[in-house]
Amino acid sequence: MNASPHDLRLRVCGEDLCETLDRLYELQLKLLEVLTVKEEALVAVELEKLSTVRDEEENLLHRVVDEEKQRLLLTEEIGDLVRFPRPSSIRVADMLEHLPGEVSERLHESRNRLRDSAIALGKQNRTNRTLIEHSLGHIQVFLSRLVNEEMMGAQYGSDGHEASGDGGSILMDRTG
Amino acid sequence: MSLFSSLNIARLALGANQTAIQTVGQNIANAATPGYARQRVQMTPTPAHDMVFAQLGTGVRVSRIERIVDEHLESTLRGARSDLSNLTEQNRIWTLAGSIFNDLDGGGLSQALGRFFDSVQDLAVNPDDPTARTLLLEEGRTLAETFHFMDARVRDLRAGLDEDIRGEVLEINRITREVSALNRAIVSAENGGLNGNTANDLRTQRDFLLGELSERLDIRVIENTSGGVQVLSGSDVLVYDGRQRDLAITPTADGDIAIGQVRFADDGGLFEAKGGRLAALLGGRDEVLVDLRGELDGIANRLISELNTIHAGGEGLTRLTNALGSVAVSDRNAALSEAGIPFAIENGGFTLQVITEANGAAESFRINVDIDSMSVIDLAEQINLTAGASHSEITAQVTADGRLEIVSSDPGVTFTFRDDDSGIVSGLGMNGLFTGSNARDIAISQTLLDDPGLLSAGRGGGPGDNSTALLMGGLRDAGLFAAGNSFEGHYQALIGEIGVHSAEASELLQNQASITTAIQNQRESLSGVNVDEEAIALITYQRAFQGAARFLNIVDQLLETLINSV
What we know:
- The complex is a heterodimer.
- Chain A is mostly helical.
- By secondary structure, chain B is an alpha+beta fold.
- Chain B folds into three domains: 106 residues, no CATH class; 339 residues, no CATH class; 110 residues, Immunoglobulin-like (Sandwich).
- Chain B is 52% helix and 16% strand.
- Chain B has a four-stranded antiparallel β-sheet, covered by helices on one side. A three-stranded antiparallel β-sheet of chain B has the order 11-15-14.
- In chain B, α1 runs antiparallel to α12, α3 packs antiparallel against α10 and α4 runs antiparallel to α5.
- The chains are: A mainly alpha, B alpha+beta.
């Protein structure tokens, strides 16, 4: 029995989404490694290493963002194909029942791996955040003993942006 | 990775990172602390764990915080500081000594000697003039007071140095006690050396104290494997690990003043300072000022001796009916050479001339003197056996306090001394111009002050006889001292010598100050804290951490989006 164009498109989109999630997974692993190195550099206050790590992190995040764009496009298309009420909001778990068996199985597996790595990545990011916030507070205390605030120039928040400014983000809005 | 592992990594990370930043803060806080050695953190990663996704680190730990110190440089600096404080003190002592002996204000010994000999010259011109006699006695009194004043200032300076020495000993004991206490604390903190040199702040405190101690003494510091140090001065151990040997001051009479000797408190052994301020103070008190006082005494003694020798053989407007020696022997029965006579005497003798004033008849009696076999009582007896035998009015006796006295019971029978080649007449202070024997007790004879007519200007030549005054005046230019120097010449040479020592000390001090500064700069460049450098380090940390913070939110947002949509 020949598959309908709708089914064929759904299968292709599902397979493409699997590949996108796998690439995201690979990128996340690399990012996790970089964030671990970043923690070591923060702890030992190794400025050169920190600079290198920051470049690597930015590069990886650009690639992750590109893959995210692809994932969002595929997710929305699959949502359309399965007539999800708000196609852009469909989760992988929601689309599994609509996909052919082997594609569904592979997507499920990719989704689980990606989720686990994302959780690990989140943990590492939280560790780094705590470390950075604490250290900046500490540095601020010692610096305030030495120089006037005016001399210290702009003040920065823990997100790396000027406290009074509106820093840009390389992350595109989820809606594109 | 377990929750415990994550928390542990965070704990280790925070601790290590804080230590690194705090160390910079500690350096800044102590930038102005003398002797502080800057510190740097050394970190070691803890072993990594193999995880499903990757090999993850388990954190980092601070392996040590090291003080940036070069022990050889510290030792060299201690030696330089010791030399510097020694030379500073030497320079101060020579400057103070110079201020006592200088004649720049016109009130010094040179001027007093000059005015005195001028008055002797005046007496030679007018030997019978009562005013000239009074003037000479007044100038003599001024000269004696000048000696007293200078002697008192030398003694005061010596007493001041003695006080300084006592203060130094107290400080040395305080420091060695603190060093030994720090030794105990360091050995305990470093677990007897098993933890490495980690008690940085305690070590910095100890180094600071050792620096202070080196200014007071020349010390050697030997560190034991346990972390404690031995402190030696010469071969004497002052601190050994947690114990110290206290120094003590033992009061000792030194001539007419009491000084404190520096000894070990435990066994009473004499402590010989090898360098630093204490050695300079001891050298100043026990050598420089003793020598200078000796020089001053030498000038006074020679002046008394030479003038008295001449004066004793002369005659005044009236001759003697009573001569009481101003020098008391220490033992009336001891041989003259052993009787503590403070002037040079030798075997020989003198002539006692007895004059019957009514007819001018003079009879001479030679008194032989053997200083090794005769006591002052023997001398009095010989006078009585010779002159006394012919002139019953003349009697000699020794007072209870050991002074020879010759008395004529008849005012019409007088006596004079002649041809004393033994020095015993002036040695015993008979018919002397001055009494005393040194700078402290020199004085114009009270007998002459009471009756200036007794001042010898002539030698029995009648009115206008100035022979004795001329002889006394001749002493002004007589080469009585080394290199043929006169009194004034010798004193000027002494002032010159003090000036040379002072200039030498000043020059050495300047050189040593340059050397010490150079070593201190070397030490500062290695161990000192540059606040700008540390501040830049902090600002650099701040910028780096702010940069590192930049992607935190992005990662969080990405992950949130991802987890929500998968």
